Amino acid sequence: MNLQDNLTALKGVGPKKANAFANMNIHTLEDLAYTIPRGYEDRRSIVDIKNLKEGETAAFLGTVDQIVPGRFRGKRGQVLKLLVSDDTGSIEVVFFNASYLTKAFAINAAFVFYGTPSYNRDRLQVIHPDFTKQAEFVKGIVPVYPLTKGVTQKEMRRLQREILPLYDELEEYLSEETVRRNHLCGLGYALRNLHFPEDKQRLLESKYRMIFDEFLVLETGIMAAKNRAGAGKGIAFAQNDCEQEYICTLPYALTGAQERCVREIKADMESTRTMNRLVQGDVGSGKTAVAEIAMYKAVRNGYQAVMMAPTEILARQHFEGMQQSFAKHGIRTGFLVGSMKAAEKRAVLEDLEQHRLDILIGTHAVIQDNVAFANLGLVITDEQHRFGVNQRVLLQNKGENINVLVMTATPIPRTLAVVLYGDLDVSVIDELPPGRQEIITRCAVAGEGMNGNLLRRKCYDFVERQVRAGRQAYVVTPLIDESEAIDARSVNEVYEELSKLFERIALLHGAMKQEEKDAIMEQFGRGDIDVLVATVVIEVGINVPNATVMVVENAERFGLAQLHQLRGRVGRGEHQSYCFLLIEHGSELAEKRGQIMEQSSDGFFIAEEDLKLRGPGEIFGTRQHGLPDLKIADMARHMDVLSRAREEALRILKEDPELAAGEHLGLRGRVTKLFGEDMTLHL
Ligand code: ADP
Ligand code: MG
């Protein structure tokens, strides 16, 4: 028997059983070996019944003195009570609705029970313990596995025990160096102790080894891909400070963080290496200026540059701002979005091909097949997290060895960015422009009825005062119309209600015509509208510095990252800004989110908290990003191991970029297996 064998090689596993296991993706003995317990029960010592304590889970050995079937809840439920005793005392063991168990017990038979005692009136009892006949009981730390229909815990444990001997002959696939440098225990030892640990220390060592392994393989694959990407010869822009010509026409001085980021981009652009850089900066940190500077440099070198934004509104805003500032330098800027008329589009495409345009700003319309550049040298994606990795690659393919800049407002924590964007270098803008004040954030659980109305009333009174002082406000609701959901206030309803309070008010939602949306955004931008009632179409990027209040209705319907983005629409100028999160249907999660928002304005912190609340799977299905699933390791919980594994991956690849050396073949095999032969990331 060896680990490559099918499950049916095991005694008692026929085709039917194998099918049940297949539902859990367990086909071979190796799959079984890598099915890690979701928890453990400590059954190393048997506690005397008199020493059982409320709330302390323990194993105890006793003989059954009495079996009392009975009823509860007006005879609707069945209950089975046992009186169990040892030399030191007795305790009641209770099973509800488990008449099938009556036959499992016999008077005077001895069992080991494992459960948590609790008080019923003044008597200690144990409800629904695990139990095993004394003769079958094995002392130890017992694994608890994830299960599926047709697979019982007992069965799983039995099979896991059966393959234990295989681990003794397991070959180590990591190099001796790697094992030693990272103080790893052996693979066989790790597997054995992961399933049937002798003690906590060994379990920890083993877990560490398995998590490290998973990250090492992942990171080796990603870093290898990155090395290859960087190997291509990129355009080397002239080594001069031409970007200063643009910087000195900006209406403000760059922040230190922006300057650093520009330096990093400049170095990339001036080297022959292709630039692949992620600019990560919180909302409002001034990423746009950095992008403009890079575009300016590309254009001064005779190249074209393109910038892709996730929404038409955002693309238009960028276009309007940049067209003006670039025109001062004689740079011609074009605009391309899906809603444009065919003739307009054609004109833009022609200008691009003839190099009558230096810069193109648009939505994903810019990655369509018919878009061709005369001499493209730089591509930028704004709010990268809204795009798939594929879209970035499509844009990149508009030219050869194009320099790539992607910008995002930290929807993911630092360490995770490295994993997801491992093929990118990262610049962080960790400083806001001067004079920004903390946005005052208040979260209120309105609930229904009078109280709720009062709270909303107070909030809108505040908005009125701000408007009278010359400021503007956003009111965001989750939905377009009432039919979509019964429970949330619709954007139309809110708009109608607020129309009674505010004169210069407008409505903006996704289903409106593009020209209408653009016209309204323009009016809002000019200050002709005081209150903008909108859906999340305004979520990313929008920049109206005079807007100082963000009210989010039905805040319970938004995730933390989204709330943070929404709040980022205010506090973009010199005025004190405010964010009100109105929760209509309170829940623990919604209130926790509200607390986090009140407590912090740091996008990194909020992203980490979001990760804790939701788990990494939900925030970014790794699949969605083209990365393979992890079985044991958890990017959120094991970040420290992740960075150590990453260091090791870098060290190994530096020594042996192709993983061709004998001692690296094992690792190479794992990497290929994880990423698949045909994935772009394979070695
Ligand atoms: P984001 O990083 O969210 O894309 P933006 O680039 O839209 O942020 O910038 C937000 C606001 O800050 C804009 O109004 C912009 O003009 C302003 N800004 C950017 N950099 C600076 C700076 N160094 N000093 C002052 N204001 C700045
Ligand atoms: Mg932006």
Question: What does the model show?
Answer:
This protein is an alpha/beta fold. Among the domains are: 1-41 and 141-165, no CATH class; 45-138, Nucleic acid-binding proteins (OB fold (Dihydrolipoamide Acetyltransferase, E2P), Beta Barrel), CATH 2.40.50.140; 243-271 and 286-408, P-loop containing nucleotide triphosphate hydrolases (Rossmann fold); 440-600, Rossmann fold, CATH 3.40.50.300. Helices cover 37% and strands 19% of the residues. The chain has 22 helices and 22 strands. The strands form four sheets. It has a seven-stranded mixed beta sheet, with no helix packed on it. The chain is globular. Bound molecules: adenosine-5'-diphosphate and magnesium ion (MG). The site of adenosine-5'-diphosphate (ADP) has 18 residues, from α9.
What percentage of residues falls in helices of 4 or more residues?
Answer: 25-40%
pLDDT averaged residue by residue: 86
What share of residues are in beta strands? 15-25%
**Whole-number radius of gyration?**
31 Å
Q: Quick one: how many beta strands?
A: 22
The CATH superfamily of the domain at 440-600 is identified as: P-loop containing nucleotide triphosphate hydrolases
Strand order of the largest sheet: 6-7-4-3-2-5-8
What overall geometry do the principal axes of the alpha carbons give? Answer: globular
Total number of helices: 22
Distance between the termini: 31 Å
Bound ligands: adenosine-5'-diphosphate, magnesium ion
